[in-house]
Amino acid sequence: MIEHSATGLSGRSEALVEDFRRWLTVERRLAPATVDHYLWAARLFLSAFEGRDLQSLSAGDVLEYAARQWPTFSVAAAKASASALRSLLRYCYLNGVIDRQLALAMPAPSGPYERGLPRYLGLADLAALLADQGDETVVGRRDHAMVVMMARLGLRAGEVAGLRLDDLDWRAGEVVIRGKGNRIERLPLPVDVGEALVAYLQGGRPPTKCRALFLRARPPLVGLSRHVVTQAVHRVCARAGVSPVGSHRLRHSAATSMLRSGASLGEVGQVLRQRSTYVTSLYAKVDFVALRALARPWPGDAA
Q1: Helix (H, G, I), strand (E, B) or coil at 214
Q2: In sequence order, what are the residues at sequence separation of 6 or more whose Cβ sits closer than 8 angstroms to the Cβ of residue 258?
Q3: Whether the predicted model's global pTM rises above the 0.85 cut
Q4: Who's near 61: CB < 8 A, 6+ residues apart?
Q5: Residues in Cβ contact with 259 at an 8 Å cutoff, skipping those fewer than 6 apart
Q6: d(CA 148, CA 195)
Q7: Domain ranges within the chain, ordered by starting residue
Q8: Average pLDDT over residues 251-266
Q9: 80 by DSSP, 3-state: which?
């Protein structure tokens, strides 16, 4: 009888995932947030073929999986999933788990990353989320602090998960952020963010030697993954009576809130720590006040 872990995978599959983790971390030296995403994609893929000998997988199986899974993803998520699964299949080939280079069969999703308007929360929904105080429980205070950080500072879920106690500089009123590409930057700590963090640290964070800022509420008391952070956003949405959104929607909401308050696109890009000005420029689509000044009267209009 095959034993299954808490994730639903067999012990053999979980052992493969753990070896894959070591390969990504030691051999490829990927950032923790990237490793976390690759492992999530690997577990999703392996669960689809649970009970099958991986040696029996064919290029057709890979293509069928992509065709079944990716229509439910955004273009960006599908591209990220493709990268993760190519890496998994390449690892399996190099380590003799499969005898064919199936990574070559993984299709490349096509399409632009941003085809429409950036999706963000309306003012009423955003206010409802920020007003939720976490029902005075340990998990509630933690979730509230994480949501406030994402909504006010535009942090990614992986960046929130990677925060450590030493990243908080209370004297300077700043927080150190470890972003994509192992970039380390400092952001000002707004008053409401600081208050939410203090409420969690003094009335919610379990006592432990672990230096991660946000911890699991039950043993083992270790730091969170980016997917647990996203689940926390869903819980806060449910309490606040807001339709469930992903953590990245809060990042978009932070950007649009800054634009509404008069910040320039350059300033928004600095807070979001975006390398590409093209990515930041996408938020110009939702700056309706600024765009209104560019609109010209329709030819022949009396106005």
Answers
A1: coil
A2: 267, 268, 271
A3: no
A4: 49
A5: 265, 268, 283, 286, 287, 290
A6: 10
A7: 11-105, 123-288
A8: 70
A9: helix
Q: What is the pLDDT of residues 136-157, one digit of tens each?
A: 788 889 999 998 888 888 888 8
| Total count of residues recorded for the chain | 303
Q: How many helices (H) and strands (E) does the chain have?
A: 13, 3
Find where tokens 């270790």 sit: 222
Helices (H), the chain: 11-22, 32-48, 59-69, 75-94, 123-131, 138-153, 157-161, 191-203, 226-240, 247-260, 265-272, 277-281, 288-292
Cα distances (Å, whole numbers) of residue 140 to 1, 61, 111, 196, 249: 40, 42, 39, 11, 20
> Cα Rg for the chain, rounded, in angstroms?
22
pLDDT for 295 equals: 43
Q: Which of 106-115, 169-178, 206-215 has the lowest mean pLDDT?
A: 106-115
Provide the 8-state DSSP code for 4: B
CATH-assigned architecture of domain 11-105: Orthogonal Bundle (1.10)
Q: Which two tokens stand for residue 217?
A: 């509420």
CATH of 123-288, one of 1.10.443.10, 3.40.50.2300, 1.20.1250.20, 3.40.50.300: 1.10.443.10
Determine phi and psi for 160, rounding to 5 degrees: -65, -45
Q: How far is residue 149's CA from residue 129's CA, in Å, rounded to a whole number?
A: 12
